[in-house]
Amino acid sequence: MWGYSNIPYFGDTLTLTYLLLDMTTILLIALPMTLVIITGEIDLSVASVVGLASAVLGLLHEHGVGMATSCIIALAVGLICGAFNGFLVAYVGLPSLAVTIGTLALYRGVAVGLLGTTAVTGFAQDWTKRAAQVIGATGIPTIIVLFAVLAVVFIVLLHFSPFGRGIYDIGLSTEAAKFSGVNVRRTKLILFCLTGVVSALAGIYFTLRFGSARGDNATGLELQVIAAVLLGGVSIFGGRGRLPGVIAGVLLIGVISSALRLQGVTVNIINIIIGLLLVLSVVSTTVLAWVSDAAARRKRASGPPQPSQSVGTH
At CA 27, angle to CA 283 and CA 271, rounded to 5? Predict the structure, then answer.
């Protein structure tokens, strides 16, 4: 039977290292994206925010600004981008799909405009080494520790807090959430702000990981993030999903992509396979929801069992 043992080098520690290094950007962005999609919204601008944060780092580096200060400014830019998306969606009432398609182009245009077609390199080795450093002989990059901390924070926020229950309520019914006391506008604004900040953090990591700041960094990454979130069991219609499943979905896509690359499969074919997985995840969610609703309707139609009547003699 064909398996990973037939793929050269797939079981090596070095393969694990590069798999996690490559997937960390998606793992980070998938955390807030999960919360956004559970509310029934979506953010397609995340990859452009990654590129914009990278461009900001490069521009500041060219002007001699320290790396720590540059990182703080890049995170602030991500926060502003997320707040702009959140304001248009939550307070103006525009559809998140239309808003983030527009800001996808806007942020990417600004990022490319800042640096043009040039790539900024020459970042301090202390910072670039940290981005690729591993923990002893385990092969696990140290950046995974940061992801693990953020994952715990987001899991507690979503699954063990009143704020998280409000997120699910919004996804199930915005009107019902309002009546139950959830501040829908504020919640959505906070979630888009989180998406912007974490995307900027992913942009900082992406830049240091490859030692290159470009305005077109991470182009198309939003599709992989959304595919991983939906493959992890989050409903595109909102109201359902869990973060552990999303993390497993990201790792599944990473393992599949890594195995196919080691087998010599081209990037285009890998993208086709990921696209098919995305379509199947959406279709399967819809089919399961339809089956569940049909079963519930049949149960209601059958009604409660009628009490048996005993025939007595008079």
Answer: 50
Distances (CA, A) of 225 to 43, 61, 88, 222, 228: 10, 28, 22, 5, 5
Is 311 within a domain? no
State how many domains the chain has. Answer: 1
Q: Are 16 and 163 in contact (CB under 8 A)?
A: no
Q: Are 210 and 6 in contact (CB under 8 A)?
A: no
Residue 17 domain flag: yes
Tokens representing residue 121 in the block: 């390199």
- On whether the pTM is more than 0.90, the answer is no
Q: pLDDT by residue (tens digit) across 154-166?
A: 999 999 999 999 9
Residue written as token pair 């900024």: 120
Report d(CA 39, CA 34) in Å as an integer: 9
Q: With beta carbons less than 8 A apart as the criterion, state whether 156 and 243 touch.
A: no
